[in-house]
Here is the input.
Amino acid sequence: LLAATCVANELKICSKRTTTYLPTIAGLPHRLEFVATKNGVTYVDDSKSTSAQSLKVALQSYVGKKVVLIAGGSDKWDSFDHLAPLFETIVKHVICLGATRELFVEVAKNAGISYSYADSMKDAVAKACQIATLEEVVLLSPGCASFWMFQNYLDRAHQFIAAVQSIPESHDKI
Here is the structure.
């Protein structure tokens, strides 16, 4: 968006027009996409995150926040060890899924943060709902492919969104 704004400025396009159109531009689906705020907790879908690098970028987007991370999937032999410092400062708890769950457990242990296992997306979201508190973020950013557990990243995203939408509103956390 910044690049588009700079180009518009260079082309002498009226800044009022640019300012009017910028808020209408949506991000890409399943790339740090806002899903909902439930009970003061924000839920974000980054199902398109299928590598350690994309997971790193997702976590860097939440510096200054605490994140309950849902991560894992099929193994692409990616290393996640270098993410321990980010986990230490940003991630409150990691919920580990799929074939790579033990890789994420090791990162969590190295970062000194808590972790748990989930056998399904519904289970992962339910656990995240119990762990996350007011103004925290539940982030689905698996850092892995979706094979074996989901049909594809879209199926994974749709299961996450459906699980989030089924969370009842409670006034206990607010």
Observations:
- The mean pLDDT is 92.
- The helical segments are 2-10, 15-21, 52-60, 84-90, 101-111, 121-131, 153-165.
